[in-house]
């Protein structure tokens, strides 16, 4: 919808700009020489590789019987919402949080309730008093996003335990989205919800994951969910339907089996990119607030001062935009060529913020930063 030449840098959608891991391309090329596209005999190899990756990478002990393959996190989580949250009930979301959670809840015919996180000493933290206050009798599910998209929190064991015990006390099921769990910054430790040292909390949860963020395979439509409670898993499976593609299975198996070195290099590169962005913003964009990322390849920037300078709180109305952040999104494209995602997409806690994907060449990221700095420093 932007004029030619205005939109130069797309830094919104959560996918990488990097070339695919060679092991994946090689496996796909080999498979397409088969010349037969009937039903696959089995997807057990993929399930086994899911178990192995979780064990090797996250020290999380799973069994293949705990795992259900899906064609996306969306259908799995929607099935879980339908299984545990009747029509008209509510799901509790710690915001700012991934915009897709609200879409999933709508598809499941349930309402959402936000518990806004607090910014404490430069880190987003769960407001546990508010979280518990929002755990009313009509709330049936709590979504935990770890790492948190868009803020980049990697939740600590004690934070997860506290949230999980509150949910258990109030009869609320925990749905843990861990799709970014491999993208962890140096010095951080990821704790799977299902590996918490409280069996009752673990058995009150389901985890949703995919390798799509790790290896940039969203187009291959493969994901999975699991629970260490057979009863919980069985309830969700009754509502779940998935049709996996042959090439998606081939790509995912190859990534799990042969792609770890590629990903470790990519993750280290993105870690350095995060540091580069932090240094640049603090030095060259003093009006923009920066919160240090702990995981994901997103950064969540605070443009509150820029929005005030351009009158976004009023201008969005006259320009027929959904929010002040959507007005800033357009303003940024027209003034810098950079497309960012509006923070208001991520719930109440996203006011004044914009999400930026950093999974690109550092040359591109440097150009993006310089373009944004030139724009915001003029107002």
Task: Describe the protein's architecture and organization.
This protein has helices spanning 22-32, 44-58, 73-84, 100-107, 128-133, 157-169, 199-202, 212-215, 230-237, 246-258, 260-284, 304-309, 312-318, 324-336, 362-376; strands spanning 9-10, 67-70, 90-95, 111-116, 118-120, 123-125, 139-145, 173-177, 205-209, 223-226, 298-302, 338-339, 341-342, 353-357. The chain is globular, with a radius of gyration of 21 Å. The longest helix is centred in the C-terminal third of the chain and has 25 residues, at 260-284. It is an alpha/beta fold and 379 residues long. The chain starts with 8 loop residues before the first strand and ends with a helix.
Keywords summarizing the entry:
single chain, 379 residues, alpha/beta, Aspartate Aminotransferase, domain 2, 2 domains, seven-stranded mixed sheet, three-stranded antiparallel sheet, 15 helices, 14 strands
Topology:
Blueprint: E1 9-10, H1 22-32, H2 44-58, E2 67-70, H3 73-84, E3 90-95, H4 100-107, E4 111-116, E5 118-120, E6 123-125, H5 128-133, E7 139-145, H6 157-169, E8 173-177, H7 199-202, E9 205-209, H8 212-215, E10 223-226, H9 230-237, H10 246-258, H11 260-284, E11 298-302, H12 304-309, H13 312-318, H14 324-336, E12 338-339, E13 341-342, E14 353-357, H15 362-376
Parallel strand pairs: 1-12, 3-4, 3-7, 7-8, 8-9
Antiparallel strand pairs: 2-10, 5-6, 9-10, 11-14, 13-14
Helix pairs in contact: 1-10, 2-10, 3-4, 11-15, 13-14
């Amino acid at each position: 919808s932007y004029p030619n030449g205005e939109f130069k840098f797309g830094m919104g959608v959560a996918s990488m700009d990097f070339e695919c891991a060679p092991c994946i391309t090689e496996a796909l090329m080999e498979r397409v020489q088969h010349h037969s596209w009937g039903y696959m005999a089995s997807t057990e190899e993929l399930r086994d590789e899911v178990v192995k990756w979780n064990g090797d990478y996250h020290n999380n002990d799973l069994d293949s019987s705990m795992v259900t393959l899906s064609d996306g996190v969306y259908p799995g989580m929607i099935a879980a919402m339908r299984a545990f949250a009747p029509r008209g009930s509510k799901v509790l979301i710690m915001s700012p949080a991934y915009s897709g959670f609200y879409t999933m809840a709508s598809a499941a015919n349930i309402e959402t309730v936000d518990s806004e996180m607090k910014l404490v000493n430069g880190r987003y933290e769960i407001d546990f008093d508010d979280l518990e206050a929002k755990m009313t009798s009509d709330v049936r599910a709590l979504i935990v996003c770890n790492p948190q998209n868009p803020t980049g929190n990697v939740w600590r064991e004690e934070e997860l335990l506290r949230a999980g015990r509150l949910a258990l006390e109030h009869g609320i099921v925990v749905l843990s989205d861990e799709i970014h769990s491999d993208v962890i910054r140096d010095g951080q430790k990821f704790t799977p919800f299902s590996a918490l040292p409280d069996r009752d909390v673990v058995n009150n949860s389901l985890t949703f994951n995919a390798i799509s963020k790790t290896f940039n395979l969203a187009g291959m439509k493969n994901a999975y969910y699991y629970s260490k409670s057979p009863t919980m898993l069985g309830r969700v499976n009754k509502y779940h339907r998935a049709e996996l593609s042959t090439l998606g299975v081939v790509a995912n198996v190859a990534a799990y089996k042969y792609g770890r070195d590629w990903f470790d290099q990519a993750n280290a590169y993105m870690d350095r990119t995060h540091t580069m962005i932090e240094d640049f913003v603090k030095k060259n964009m003093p009006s923009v607030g920066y919160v240090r990322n702990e995981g994901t390849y997103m950064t969540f920037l605070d443009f509150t001062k820029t929005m005030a300078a351009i009158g976004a709180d009023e201008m969005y109305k006259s320009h027929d935009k959904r929010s002040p952040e959507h007005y800033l999104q357009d303003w940024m494209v027209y003034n810098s060529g950079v497309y960012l995602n509006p923070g208001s997409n991520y719930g109440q806690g996203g006011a004044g913020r914009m999400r930026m994907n950093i999974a690109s060449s550092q040359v591109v990221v440097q150009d993006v930063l310089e373009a944004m700095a030139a724009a915001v420093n003029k107002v």
